[in-house]
Design brief:
The protein is mainly β. It is built from 3 helices and 34 strands. It is globular.
């Protein structure tokens, strides 16, 4: 099944005009037929994966493996070297608890499998590299009787392309650490990996990754990779999991690919900055439309069929002069990166999306059904009069080149307000704050009253760190729900030689401080996330044959 972007662009454009949000009038934007984006649902991987799972099922059912003789399959899907699969049977139905011994209590990874079973296929995540890992398996029957077994799992050496991780500070009593939470490094290229409070890598993928690394409602991952690590283009989108199992694969044509270096050669990407899961289960992705303008289009991809169901072209929403006359940045390949959309977030409160445009120094909310603008955050100077009504009112400094705007859980028990957390690089690209530009970068939390169209700043972190932590590109800020801490990623320090990740409390106390260095070119931390290897949504199932 193959879907193309071009055939849907006209339909969405008509919707925009009929709803009255195309206030800049009609725009001619020719899409080269040879460069239009197409997507296909790929199932070629299924046969090989099914063969693996058939082998594991046969081992499980063989009768050879019991609680006293547990079968261990390291890296069962050839994609997650610090994982394993335990296979065994018990005479009585039992639950299973596992514990991967850490160097201390804070780095010991635990999980419970609460269903009473006699056939057990238990995923083990969070092993140390190049180590004989001790895994404790506790079995409990329905009468409450327990037994404990120990399995030793030897792993291989760590991949060389992972950064040097230096933990400068870690207060595990104040950090947000559950039974299996790690700090994940989402790279611009090369390895995605995760480390514990001691800075030890406890998970990584053999599949290279760029920018798109999101946990889904079912606990799986949305993961952008390549056809092979040697390929030039990130054009394969996977639904996978921490064990490396694949659930869906979508192949994108490479003709509309571009890169952030501005050159027409070298490593490219099709889904350039972000991808999210919608309430329908479909994916909303930031892409290029095949025209000379890049990083200004989104598509909704049907999760089950791979069809493109919707296209949102920001050229239909924003002023024509913004892209036709744009000259704040330039590229060697001649493409015009006038908006540079680097994030998208769905707001379930009003069925809208919040997007960040680095090259317009702007964050804005638009209605998802109609594409009508709801509000704009930023400096209103230079915008046409017809857009002035959308600007939020309040004494809040304009952001500059910002990234990663997300909606927070309710912070003030007020249904009329929305709190947004984002990373402000603080570089004035087009209309950022010139007075403070390039002096510091910071995480910022603002509170917006949609009805009153007002904005206030309620929390910041980073200004006091000054120019040493200024990052002209990339970065992220994440809210940790259990503690209220924030995870802040200063991704491009020292001209891209260092990525610094900090966890800070509501009061601004730093409880984790980590520097990443010695990584391959462009393999810096694009974003930092705090995820649980055994998240609440995920259930592993060994496919029955």
């Amino acid at each position: 099944m193959r879907a193309t972007l071009k055939k849907l662009t006209y339909c969405i454009g008509v919707t925009v005009c009929l709803t009255g949000c195309g206030v800049s009038g009609s725009v001619s934007n020719e899409v080269d037929t040879e460069e239009q984006l197409s997507v296909s649902l790929n199932d070629e991987w299924q046969e090989m994966q099914s063969e693996k799972e058939k082998k594991y099922q046969n081992l499980l059912k063989s009768g050879e493996y019991t609680e006293d003789n547990i079968y261990v399959q390291l890296d069962p899907y050839d994609a997650s070297p610090l994982s394993a699969l335990l296979l065994f049977q018990t005479e009585d139905a039992m639950t299973v608890d596992i514990s991967v011994a850490g160097k201390d209590e804070a780095t010991t990874i635990k999980n419970s499998f609460d269903d009473y079973e006699t056939d057990h296929s238990i995923p083990v995540l969070g092993l140390y590299p190049d180590t004989e890992n001790e895994v404790t398996v506790t079995l409990t029957d329905e009468s409450g009787n327990s037994m404990e077994k120990t399995v030793t799992i030897k792993t291989g050496t760590l991949a060389k392309s992972i950064a040097n991780i230096e933990v400068k500070e870690a207060d595990t009593t104040k950090m947000e650490l559950g039974d299996s939470e790690l700090t994940f490094v989402v790279p611009s290229t090369k390895r995605a990996y995760a480390f514990d409070a001691n800075g030890d890598v406890r998970w990584y993928s053999t599949r290279y990754n760029s920018h798109i690394f999101k946990e889904l409602t079912n606990g799986n991952l949305l993961y952008l990779t390549k056809e092979s690590n040697d390929a030039d283009t990130y054009n394969v989108l996977l639904e996978t999991d921490y064990l490396g199992k694949i659930y869906h694969r979508y192949d994108f044509s490479s003709s509309s690919a571009a890169n952030d270096t501005g050159k027409s050669e070298g490593e490219m990407t099709v889904i350039h900055h972000d991808g999210i899961e919608l309430p329908s289960g479909n994916f909303l992705l930031t892409v290029n439309d095949g025209s000379n303008y890049i990083e200004d289009t989104m598509i909704e991809l049907n999760r089950e069929t791979g069809e493109i169901e919707k296209t949102i072209d920001l050229k239909d929403i924003l002023p024509e002069a913004f892209y036709e006359d744009y000259d704040s940045t330039s590229r060697e390949d001649g493409k015009v990166d006038w908006f540079h959309q680097n994030s998208v977030e769905y707001d379930e409160a009003d069925n809208s999306i919040i997007i960040s445009g680095r090259h317009q120094d702007t964050i804005m909310k638009i209605d998802y059904d109609t594409s009508e603008i709801k509000w704009i955050m930023g400096d209103s100077s230079g915008w046409p009069e017809s857009y002035q009504k959308y600007f939020l009112k309040g004494d809040v400094k304009a952001s500059g080149g910002q990234h990663a705007a997300i909606v927070l859980p309710d912070q003030d028990d007020n249904d009329e307000t929305t709190d947004i957390l984002y990373y402000d690089n603080n570089i004035s690209v087009t209309r950022g704050d010139e007075e403070t530009s390039e002096k510091y970068s910071e995480a910022r939390q603002v509170r917006i009253n949609d009805a009153e169209m007002t904005i206030e700043e309620v929390w910041t972190f980073g200004e006091d760190l000054g120019e040493d932590y200024y990052t002209k590109i990339i970065g992220s800020a994440r809210y940790l729900r259990n503690t209220g801490n924030r995870l802040v990623n200063f991704g491009y320090r020292d001209e891209g030689q260092t990525s610094s990740i900090m966890e800070v409390t509501e009061e601004g106390e730093t409880v984790l401080k980590v520097d990443l260095t010695d990584f391959p070119t462009s393999a810096w931390a694009y974003r930092a996330e705090r995820f649980s290897l055994y998240n609440e949504g995920w259930t592993y199932e060994l496919k029955e044959e």
